[in-house]
Specification:
Strand content: 15-25%
Number of strands: 9
Helix content: 25-40%
Distance between the termini: 65 Å
Structural class: alpha+beta
Number of helices: 1
Length: 177
């Protein structure tokens, strides 16, 4: 009877070992997929950051050559949406994706479809529209030689590249992208 009990326990342990080995293989495969996605997101973030910096520099140079770029202070900036609730701050230590990239702006809470207004007058350096979720749609406005503003998470963009906007103009609507 003891031998039968021992054999039954051996079979149970073999089943548990096989199950755990299978679970380990699945976990390693999931980890590999995660690392691939993480690497892809980091590349996309860097490409977008480089693109934003490139457009900002290009438009500043173009406006400077045409003497259209203000060198002075812009005065008080307008709040872009009615809400003043900030969900994430510059380089926020609690930002959930901080291991993927540094959060280099502020996220302001706004319901989907809220009008987003230009914080000050300036030239639209880039109005990037996207049709896929992995793409970052944004509007970049150059205000002066040293100040520009970037708007993301937009469901609709109403402005175009090289367009001049006035302080308070609606440039688009908030969304979950």
């Amino acid at each position: 009877a003891l031998q039968e009990e021992l054999d039954a326990k051996k079979l149970e342990l073999q089943d548990q070992t096989a199950f755990k080995q299978d679970l380990l293989v699945q976990t390693k495969a999931s980890e590999a997929r995660y690392e691939t996605l993480l690497s892809s997101q980091r590349r996309e973030y860097q490409l977008t950051t480089d693109e934003i910096n490139g457009f900002e520099d290009k438009v500043r140079k173009k406006l400077s050559e045409q003497n259209l770029l203000s060198q002075g202070a812009v005065g008080e900036l307008l709040w872009p949406v009615p809400s003043h609730i900030i969900n994430a701050y510059f380089h926020d230590a609690t930002y959930p994706f901080k291991n993927v990239f540094q959060h280099s702006g502020i996220d302001i809470k706004a319901p989907h479809g809220t009008a987003i207004r230009a914080v000050n007058s300036g030239y639209v350096a880039r109005a990037r529209r996207c049709s896929v979720a992995s793409c970052y749609a944004y509007v970049l406005i150059v205000h002066t030689e040293t100040i520009s503003s970037l708007y993301g998470h937009m469901s609709q963009i109403l402005v175009n590249d090289d367009q001049y906007v006035n302080k308070g103009d609606i440039i688009g609507y908030s969304g979950g992208t």
